[in-house]
């Protein structure tokens, strides 16, 4: 069963979502799956901020405005701005996933980032397993200090993505891989 969920999980962007609302208790169940990610030293560095309803719409508008105000003119893209403004239109919930950096200096930051990434993957596999739609976005100001300030995060924390969750009526596209496994794996016996 998990094999097919992994192979069938697809990115479904908010524009492909139909605007139907996922019950909050289902979102909580999906976040509980995320909580079971592997992590070094039991630091559990993943944190989630969940937006829904009017608060999600407001966040998307404010994120777009922050993008406009903090992006140099030569890098600003009107399409990106419009996508940020309208991202909530089809989504049910928006989840900001970030790494809460622990105080243990023996745990490298990279391990904490990997743990949060694993938590996001758990969330997305749960989404796929329930026949829901999900999109892990790293666009806009995800990697910018301005978003961290907006969210009230600490300097050492790191936003790893905005996950849009919803429902889609569109059939899933067939998955494909471009690079053969023989080029990705080296066996030493």
What is the CATH-assigned architecture?
Answer: 3-Layer(aba) Sandwich
CATH fold label = NADH Oxidase
Largest sheet: 4 strands, antiparallel
Looking at CATH, the homologous superfamily is NADH Oxidase
Query: Can you write the helix and strand succession as a string?
Result: HHEHHEHEHE
For this structure, what is the CATH class?
Alpha Beta
Mean pLDDT, all residues: 95
For the termini, the CA-CA separation is: 31 Å
Rounded to the nearest angstrom, the radius of gyration is: 18 Å
Short description:
By secondary structure, the chain is of the alpha+beta class. The chain has six helices and four strands. The chain has one domain: NADH Oxidase, CATH 3.40.109.
Task: Please tell me about this protein's structure.
With 189 residues, the protein is α+β, with helices and mostly antiparallel strands. It is 39% helix and 15% strand. It has one domain (2-183): NADH Oxidase (3-Layer(aba) Sandwich), CATH 3.40.109. The protein has six helices and four strands. Helix 2 packs across helix 5 and helix 3 runs antiparallel to helix 4 (78-86). 30% of the residues are buried.
Task: Supply the key terms.
189 residues, alpha+beta, NADH Oxidase, four-stranded antiparallel beta sheet, 6 helices, 4 strands, 39% helix, globular
């Amino acid at each position: 069963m998990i094999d097919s969920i992994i192979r069938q999980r697809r990115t479904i962007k908010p524009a492909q979502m139909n605007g139907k609302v996922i019950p909050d208790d289902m979102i909580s169940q999906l976040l509980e799956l995320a909580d079971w990610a592997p992590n070094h030293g039991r630091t559990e560095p993943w944190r989630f901020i969940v937006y829904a309803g009017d608060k999600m719409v407001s966040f998307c508008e404010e994120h777009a405005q922050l993008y406009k105000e903090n992006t140099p003119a030569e890098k600003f893209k009107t399409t990106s701005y419009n996508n940020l403004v309208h991202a909530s239109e089809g989504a049910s919930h928006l989840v900001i996933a970030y790494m809460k950096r622990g105080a243990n200096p023996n745990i490298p930051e990279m391990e904490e980032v990997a743990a949060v990434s694993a938590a996001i993957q758990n969330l997305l596999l749960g989404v796929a397993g329930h026949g829901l739609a999900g999109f892990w976005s790293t666009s806009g100001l995800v990697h910018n200090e301005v978003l961290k300030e907006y969210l009230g995060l600490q300097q050492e924390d790191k936003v790893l993505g905005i996950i849009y969750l919803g429902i889609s009526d569109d059939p899933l596209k067939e998955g494909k891989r471009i690079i053969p496994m023989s080029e990705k794996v080296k066996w030493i016996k």
